[in-house]
Amino acid sequence: QLQLVESGGGLVQAGDSLRLSCVVSRFRIRDYAMAWFRQDPGKEHEFVAGIDWRSSSTTYADSVKGRFTISRDNAKNTVYLQMNSLTPEDTAVYFCASSRNYYNSRNSWKNGMDNWGHGTQVTVSS
């Protein structure tokens, strides 16, 4: 089955940048729309960004639009999340996930994901 492994998280200061990576094995990511979610302590998963099969369309949560950029390299079977101008509110565990469908609305993503990674911790200090 599809396997996803995230990396790139860490401890940074407000205003810094990080780039997260999600490497997918066993299946070609060209067959899947991909997304990033995050989970704050004690809270449910929050949609962050999504991208379609050929990078033709992207969707972002309002809280990260203009600061975060999702991208994919199908040849490398990898999805990225570039995070700039980080704030303490961005602190969370970040997960990548796959979907057979792409959704234009950020509210439609969560229940449509087929496979999830195990997450990478991002901590932003003041």
**Low-pLDDT segments:** none
Count of strand segments: 11
Tally the helices.
0
Q: What is the terminal separation in angstroms?
A: 40 Å
Mean pLDDT: 94
Indicate the percent of residues in helices: under 10%
Order of helices and strands: EEEEEEEEEEE
The assigned structural class equals: mainly beta
Q: What percentage of the residues does DSSP assign to strands (E)? A: over 45%
Q: Round the Cα radius of gyration to an integer and report it.
A: 13 Å
What is the 3D form?
Answer: globular
Largest sheet: 7 strands, mixed
Characterize the structure shown.
There is one protein chain. 0% of the residues lie in helices and 49% in strands. The protein is mainly β and 126 residues long. Strands 2, 4, 5, 6, 9, 10 and 11 form a 7-stranded mixed beta sheet that branches. It has a 4-stranded antiparallel beta sheet with strand order 1-3-8-7, with no helix packed on it. Strand 5 and strand 6 form a beta hairpin. The chain is globular and about 40 Å long.
